[in-house]
Amino acid sequence: MADASVSESRKDTAQTVRFRGGGFAPKPRRWTGIAVFAVLILVMEWGTQSGWISALTLPKPSDVLRTLVELYQSGQFTAHMLPSLTRLAVGGFLGAVAGTGTGILIGLFSYARSGLVPLVAALFPVPKIALLPLFVIWFGIDEGSKYALIAFGTFTPTVVATYGAVDNVDRTLIRMGQSFGLSWLSIVRKIILPGAMPGILSGLRISLAIAIILLTAAEMLGAEYGIGAYVLQAGSLYDLDRLFAGVVILSLLGVILNMVIGFLERRLLVWRV
Fold first, then answer.
1. Is 249's pLDDT higher than 50?
2. pTM more than 0.90
3. 62-268 CATH choice from 3.40.50.720, 1.10.3720.10, 1.10.287.1700, 1.20.1250.20
4. Shortest CA distance to 250 belongs to which of 73, 97, 68, 63?
């Protein structure tokens, strides 16, 4: 009788334990990021309007917005944006493709790892902007040097991220594929590449951000049109409205590229719960 009462009390106090496996799964909160930007802009607008923030330090966001509108209406936005997008697309694509391919080779083949990892380790810490004069000598002051700088700057972080992602693929899955008699190519295509894809895409986020930085630096040397050239002209005239307008354009470009990577993650990583 006592045991029955104890078991009943335990049932009364028992609580359902939720499944913890998806506890860290991200949930979309679409308006949170917009709200953060809105609050920051409102604080800056209030600070500059009230004089709490000096006009020599930070322009009014409303003035920056007006500058962006004027830039678009005058046609200068397209004149500066198209060359920048072309340079970023060509250089970033070449660097990302070459870096991903090289990283996969390093992750899969011992000879490639032994021969290329020391080379990548030597090239990775080299400041890419410092090599711009060298690329100008090699490829000329026109578009070739800009493509090469962006591609080289995108290449090394993509290589490191890719072969690190390949190394982190669960070896148990590979052994399971071998035990089921899958061929080497099937294991690479069905196990290694899907397992490494999250790390590869995360590396691309960093690589493309570096590409935007190098794009700006390359356009500051010998470019008549481009966002970097626009920012350099505004800075030389100490025109803060135009300077911050160029910074806003670069920031929006980074946000758009981040959204593109997020779209690819949703498409390519549908297997991930």
1. yes
2. no
3. 1.10.3720.10
4. 68
